[in-house]
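for ur thesis appendix - 2-oxo-4-hydroxy-4-carboxy-5-ureidoimidazoline decarboxylase. copy paste whatever u need, i formatted it the way the template wanted (i think)
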Amino acid sequence: MDVIPVGPSPPFSFGTERNPFGGFCRKSSGPRVRPSPTSKPPREQRTLKRYETLGLLIASLLPPEQVVNSEPRRPLPSALLAPRSQRTSLSLPAPPLGPGPGRRSWHRGAQGQEGILRCHPDLAGRELQQGTLTAESRREQRGAGLMSLDAAERLRLAELNAQYRARFGFPFVLAARLSDRAAVPGELARRLQRPPAEELRTALGEVKKIGRLRLADLLGAAGLAGP
Ligand SMILES: NC(=O)N[C@H]1NC(=O)NC1=O
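the 3d part is after this line
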């Protein structure tokens, strides 16, 4: 069977933190490095990024022996090296959350799971208003009705998103296509109350759902969007 090469990443960055799947995400603190709408990466780089994301999604579904890291000095994410039966290792031991030295070293450690969450824009956030979301995110958020919120609903979500980020250190992530505008604030308020380690696992599970749905779209396949 063919092997799927992983990495190296193309030379673009939305920050300086490398996520566990090879891309760059925003750092949790400090000034945010954000491309302005007028400085989008060139078309080829966006296309490359899409292919890289697709390759990594596919790699995450394969047994480790079929995944080859084409960048010698960059180790594969540990989540990809685990036997497939344990690949739900996005439910690995809880990292220390919140401010403090433990969190920093965890960030730099082998897991770095939290980084993937920071790749996600807020639901109904500024990027949606400013039109700077990726086409996929925009479609997902629009499908959930998040583009039609009134001012009070938007404010409520913005407050909840800010509280969530302050508590957990990463943005609230939810597979918008499996939800809707009426359910999102309640779900956000509910998850805001959860213990950090549990919430991290839930949030990573949502990333997997989003990935599966996007992969199903890309492959034109039905049935990949299961639990
Ligand atoms: N924060 C967050 O959940 N963002 C997203 N969810 C989703 O389904 N698409 C997104 O952009």
